[in-house]
Design brief:
181 residues; DUF2062; single chain
């Protein structure tokens, strides 16, 4: 499984050769940030799923900071943040709003539709989306934290379980090969 994942992930030489990241090379080139095992992969998926709900373009920066703090696989966490994108962000926010509304017990809070970005210039998208998120208030804020935590824990458990099942199957195949004459 590790060999398959390594085909998709960049190596640490890309960080070393990047002139913008060179000042942070001592931190970003820590071996545990690039090592891939079931513990670092599960932690990276958890970090990526949690940071994927950070509003705006700060998702990958947040994931990188958490990877350095928790010493989990950096490239996998960065890739995992991509689950929230322009196609999925509105359904995720609707779900987060519902979770927050349920947790607060606020039956009066109403979800308002996101702004129509079609006629706006690209530079005006972020203020329009920020105003929309602010209008949703406490249910959205609490719901985002709850949804991020829920996704993070479920992703961690799913990766640990999947990796373990894969290892057991591989071990059983080796055992079966060893028994054959």
């Amino acid at each position: 499984m590790r060999k398959r994942l390594k085909n998709f992930l960049p190596d640490h030489a890309a960080i070393h050769d990047n002139r913008w990241l060179r000042p942070f090379a001592s931190t970003l080139l820590h071996p545990r940030l690039w090592h891939l095992n079931r513990h670092s992969a599960a932690g990276a998926v958890a970090v990526g799923l949690f940071c994927g709900l950070i509003p705006g373009p700060l998702q990958m920066l947040g994931a990188a900071v958490f990877c350095v703090l928790f010493r989990v696989n950096l490239p996998l966490a960065l890739i995992t943040t991509l689950y929230s994108n322009p196609l999925t962000i509105v359904p995720l926010y609707v779900l987060a709003f519902g979770l927050g509304k349920l947790a607060l017990g606020d039956g009066e809070a109403e979800f308002t539709a996101p702004p129509d970005l079609e006629g706006l210039a690209f530079a005006n998208w972020i203020p329009a989306l920020t105003d929309w998120m602010a209008s949703l208030g406490k249910p959205l804020a609490l719901g985002l934290v709850l949804l991020a935590a829920l996704l993070s824990v479920s992703g961690y458990v799913a990766v640990k379980w999947t990796w373990r099942v894969w290892l057991i199957r591989q071990w059983r195949k080796r055992q079966a090969k060893g028994r054959q004459p």
